[in-house]
Specification:
Elements (H helix, E strand, L loop, with lengths): L1 H16 L35 H37 L1 H15 L3 H12 L3 H27 L3 H8 L4 H37 L11 H9 L7 H28 L8
Helix pairs in contact: 1-2, 1-9, 2-3, 2-5, 2-7, 3-5, 4-5, 5-7, 6-7, 7-8, 7-9, 8-9
């Protein structure tokens, strides 16, 4: 857990460092093409245009954090709202929303995001929209199931008898009891969003040149893999470590917050 949190902290620091005005991730230096790591003043080497891989890696960290954070927040908000409405109101609301969730689940999530990104066009905003449209379904299904199991609890029935409105019941008496599973789902969602953003950028549907993204850095380095493998290895290893750390944090949160998994005295 500590190692995973340390990697997440390093990712956050990289994203913050990528915003420093002193960095020039797009500065071209034709005299230092394909510089290997720790040579010619480049910590992690340079790419096919002599741009610093370290500075582009920092800039790409900010992009991945921005896309992952915004898309997860939007997905969580939409999915939680839709799931609570379906589970608490029931009836026609539940049937319509359940069918909508099943329709979205019938399509592979990444392929749906690729189709939406291709339809909307490349760019960070459209990537966030595509990932949010793909990600809300998991939250909606989770929250709906949680709401169905909680809406007949004694405290909810008491609040209903006291005249509490439906928004108040959902906000004050249902949502606090669902924060733990939602938090676990969000941690996994961060990992999925990071890898999805990199995949869309690799396909040319995400961040556009000359702006740096881990996915676009890998795409640009593939053609020079035999000549300068560090162009692919550096962003690929960093991307893998961030995704692994986010998944491990999700596993630990699930174990910590799931009372049924704790050993009894």
């Amino acid at each position: 857990m500590r190692g995973s949190l340390l990697l997440i902290l390093v990712w956050l620091l990289m994203a913050a460092a990528g915003q420093l005005p002193a960095l020039e991730p797009n500065r071209i230096a034709l005299a230092h093409l394909f510089a290997p790591p720790l040579q010619d003043g480049y910590l992690l080497g340079s790419d096919a245009l002599g741009r610093s891989l370290a500075e582009r890696l920092l800039s790409g960290a900010g992009i991945s954090l921005l896309v992952a954070g915004v898309s997860v927040l939007l997905s969580c908000f939409i999915g939680t709202l839709v799931g609570m409405l379906a589970g608490y109101l029931g009836g026609a609301w539940d049937r319509v929303i359940s069918r909508l969730i099943e329709i979205f689940l019938a399509f592979p999530g990444l392929l749906l995001a690729i189709a939406l990104a291709a339809f909307l066009g490349p760019g960070i905003d459209n990537v966030v929209i595509a990932l949010s449209a793909m990600g809300w379904v998991g939250y909606a299904r989770l929250v709906r199931n949680q709401t169905l199991s909680l809406r007949h609890r004694e405290h909810v029935m008491a609040a209903l008898a006291l005249g509490r409105t439906t928004p108040d019941i959902m906000r004050l008496h249902l949502l606090p009891l669902m924060l733990a599973p939602i938090l676990v789902e969000a941690s996994y969602g961060v990992a999925s969003a990071v890898i999805a953003e990199a995949g869309l950028s690799f396909l040319g549907l995400g961040v556009q040149p000359p702006q740096a993204s881990w996915g676009s850095m890998i795409r640009e380095g593939v053609r020079y893999l035999l000549v300068a493998p560090h162009l692919v290895l550096v962003p690929g290893i960093v991307l893998s470590l961030v995704v692994l750390a986010a998944n491990l944090v999700g596993d630990r949160l699930r174990d910590r917050l799931d009372v049924t998994s704790r050993s009894r005295p």
